[in-house]
Design brief:
Oligomer: single chain
CATH superfamily: CBS-domain
Number of helices: 8
Largest sheet: 3 strands, mixed
CATH class: Alpha Beta
Radius of gyration: 16 Å
Shape: elongated
Number of strands: 6
Helix content: 25-40%
Length: 158
């Protein structure tokens, strides 16, 4: 385990969205891929944020003015099945207002690790920040994701 790095245990299948994608497009993307959130990339592929179903629901159900949220985001913690019913997800169809984009609701602050960070460094980042998923980056671009399930596999295989 001492020699394992983020690159060795990360999931390389990164499903990312562009900041210009509509909210409806994001809802469809998340539902079709059965994921609760995704990294947000710029047109040149650089990681610029993260977005989740929670961000969509907050935008659609909470008044924007005067609302303060915990900066630690739920997109790392839960899957769609754990947090939202099918009725909640089906209700994510927006037609009454000007279309907002992923860039309008994304979280710019996200936690990342480098591909050569050790498993211990990844675990420390996750524990210290109380998160269940981190993005692995190279040259500011997402190349992988590590979840608590990935970390548990490392422990299991020791």
């Amino acid at each position: 385990m001492e020699n394992l790095t983020a690159k060795d245990i990360m999931n390389k299948d990164v499903l990312a969205v562009n900041s210009e994608l509509s909210i409806q497009g994001l809802a469809d993307f998340l539902f079709q891929n059965a994921i609760s959130g995704a990294p947000v990339i710029s047109n040149d592929g650089k990681l610029i944020g993260a977005v989740s179903i929670t961000d969509i629901l907050r935008r659609e159900t909470v008044p924007e003015k005067g609302v303060q949220f915990n900066p630690r985001r739920d997109y790392y913690v839960h899957t769609t099945d754990d947090r939202f019913s099918h009725q909640d997800i089906d209700a994510l169809h927006f037609t009454d207002e000007a279309p907002a984009t992923v860039g309008d609701i994304m979280t710019s602050r996200m936690l990342v690790v480098g591909e050569n960070d050790t498993v211990q460094q990844v675990a420390d980042t996750m524990i210290r920040n109380r998160i269940h998923r981190v993005f692995v980056t190279r040259d500011e671009k997402p190349i992988g994701i590590i979840s608590t399930a990935d970390m548990l596999k490392v422990i299991r295989d020791m």
